[in-house]
């Protein structure tokens, strides 16, 4: 079963940088796998994603994309390789916009994580600490994201909340 | 004076489940009292509330409703019984929509809590960690909710922040 | 180099009160300097600011205003005096609305902090823990505020997150 770490945080909290450092520290002989879930909806985003890809590849990461089929991409990563998923919030949002069953997708993800061997670091946004959104879709998303974070935190051995680049350990040690 | 615990958290953070467990753990011989503050504005919400009621009653809770008169309902609960209030954010929102004086309502609540004997667990949302809302009523609510949380945290012996189902102790021990 | 403390928190979290207490505790023989960044856009806000000014002056603070030129005002404060900046979020927002380069302003601020002698306490809002704002300017602001908080947290010796008036130490001790 995967050695699972969940890194939670707000927008621009430094959670991705922290998660990258944790993944590299956990990586053994196999190159670490970076699974990006961002989907390019326009040229600006496509450019940002391409820039990210080039930076990561230069740092020795194996790059994979999983805007939707995260369970499948996790299953294909080499056994024992350290895997970073950045981020679950975009992945969930992609499924919401595609009209998929978010509960079923969450279950498939948890099964894929349970089946993996080696360290996995998941990045996820905490989105429930503001005022109730006026937009109904945003409310549905907020609920689904909160439930997913709870489920993955229960499955993880280590849960870290990042604020201003600094880690707070909610589960597991430093 | 009540043995007061404040459980803070975001939407779908697992704060209600944590608060229920704390209340049951603190309950003595008397059945625990569950005070719900949700108000049904439509059929869907009425159904959800009825379902919740049935679940709790089956688990041995005495059920009370306090969309507005929380101080009164707290005073009527048997002395020594463990009480759970879920949640203060809806209660405050009900008073805001009713046009009541939120400062006065907060004072009455704090007096009722000070007068109780036995454990009380309060659930409340943290709503001030997003961008300033464009809606003026939402801004007023956010300010009032933050002030209420501060006042109750000062009164409580234990304050717990819940994220992804995991507790972080802000005041008092585990 | 300044002995720097960053106090993060949500709206009405009690972060300003905590920061004031920390500044007063750190002040030596020189009177502490209170640098306010709020800008009055209407009569109501002008009145609130005037009230704040009068309260602080009565408590022995030297009052300074820095809606934009915070680096300059920091440089002018007496060497060794304890300084409180309340708050960075309004200051950043003032620069955003003025169309300034937020990255450059952040760098100038960090240089001014590095050049100071004596304790400095900075108050800043955490604004990235809600749903992605629909407003593009709000998204830009959220990103800039998160980056500023990360940069200042790296520079600070102590970082405190305040929720419901209670401190959580992210960096440095109690």
Short descriptors:
alpha/beta; homotrimer; 45% helix; 174 residues; 6 helices; 7-stranded mixed β-sheet
Plain-language structure description:
Three copies of one chain form a homotrimer. The first copy, chain A, is of the alpha/beta class and 174 residues long. Chain A is 45% helix and 22% strand. The first copy, chain A, contains six helices and seven strands. Chain A has helices spanning 15-26, 43-58, 70-76, 88-97, 102-115, 136-155; strands at 3-9, 33-36, 62-65, 83-86, 119-125, 158-163, 166-171. The longest helix of chain A is centred in the last third of the chain and has 20 residues, at 136-155. The mean pLDDT of chain A is 94. Chains in contact: A-B, A-C, B-C. The A-B interface holds A 6, 8, 10, 126-132, 134, 142-143, 145-147, 149-150, 152-154, 159, 161, 168, 170-171 and B 9-14, 126-131, 133, 135, 138, 141-142, 163-166, 168.
Report the mean per-residue pLDDT of chain A as an integer.
Answer: 94
Class per helix and strand makeup of chain A: alpha/beta
Main pleated-sheet profile of chain A: 7 strands, mixed
In DSSP terms (H or I, runs of 4 or more residues), the helix count of chain A works out at 6
Largest interface (C-beta under 8 Å): A-B, 26 and 22 residues
Strand content of chain A: 15-25%
Oligomer: homotrimer
Assign a percent range to the helix content of chain A.
Answer: 40-55%
Number of strands of chain A: 7
- Shape, principal axes of CA atoms of chain A: globular
Q: Give the terminus-to-terminus CA distance of chain A.
A: 21 Å
Low-confidence stretches of chain A: none
Reading side by side through the largest sheet of chain A, how are the strands ordered?
A: 3-2-4-5-1-6-7
Give the helices and strands of chain A as they follow along the chain.
Answer: EHEHEHEHHEHEE
Provide the gyration radius of chain A in Å. 15 Å
